[in-house]
Amino acid sequence: MFLYLLGLVVFYYLYRWFREIPRVPDKGDKYVYITGCDSGFGNLLARHLDKLGFCVIASCFTEKGEEDLRKACSDRFTTLHLDVKKNESVDKAAALIKDKVGARGLWAVVNNAGVAIPSAPCDWLTIDDYKSMLDVNLNGVIAVTLSVLPLIKKARGRVVNVASVFGRISPVGGPYTVSKYGVEAFNDSLRRNMVPFGVKVLCIEPGFFKTTVTDSIVLGKSIKQLWEKMPQEVRDDYGPDYLDKVDVMMREKLAKMSDADLMKVVSCMEHAISAVRPRTRYSPGWDAKLFWIPMSYMPTGFADWLLLKEAILPAKAVN
């Protein structure tokens, strides 16, 4: 019986691997719009797709990001400035893309732009802290998608949304997981809405990778700033040594958990864009596959126990 089940599993993965090999033709006629290309996944994806022959439109928040990409890529490559928080910036970018792609439409948009700060326990934060991140990670994704959706429908193309395993389970406080749950919900509803138009909507759910999102120095500085501005009453709840414990945990554990091979994520993004039969969801990273996503299916009580077991507790925690 065991060998029979093992054979079925092997057959399934071989079948899936074979089925996912074919790639779309005429890459040189297909335009791909990527947000958040200053660094990290977006930067690597833009360079990778350019080498594969796609016509890449890479949006950056900084002039330096644009300049570095233009120097490194081909004549097909286009850069533009984009601030996903501002509707006028999103609309201006969409108008430029419409002129660029013409009647053929836009093959794909990759919603990669995102931020990870401020992140902290919920009672450290204000509603403005939540709004500042949601404007980028969630509202920005929706605004960019809607701005170019008519062009994608014209091409019967793809929408690729970069969420996170933290869109499946919420082990930390703050707006990051809230924003990623929102991206998952938008992705699911859009996927079903677009089926009649032949548009594919795919989701990338990475685990921990070494990017600015998981940079312990950046995160530590943000947490320290939040600590210094919050009410003394809340600081007393957590105790004077709480901040030091968090700093040590981030420097030791976060570095070990984060995978340095960003191409694992970029390869999933590229497959979502170029495969004839892309997957609905991609979960790059062994931590995503073997820990976070399985935990998201566990009973809530068990997941809470497991996550709190390793958590740094406040000084006034109730025993």
Automatic annotation (TrEMBL):
The keyword Repeat does not apply. It comes from the Eukaryota. Gene3D superfamilies: NAD(P)-binding Rossmann-like Domain. Coiled coil: none annotated. InterPro entries: NAD(P)-bd_dom_sf, Sc_DH/Rdtase_CS, SDR_fam. Pfam families: adh_short (PF00106). Keywords: Oxidoreductase. GO terms for molecular function: oxidoreductase activity. The keyword Oxidoreductase applies. GO terms for biological process: steroid metabolic process. Belongs to the short-chain dehydrogenases/reductases (SDR) family. This is Retinol dehydrogenase 7-like. It comes from Salvelinus namaycush.
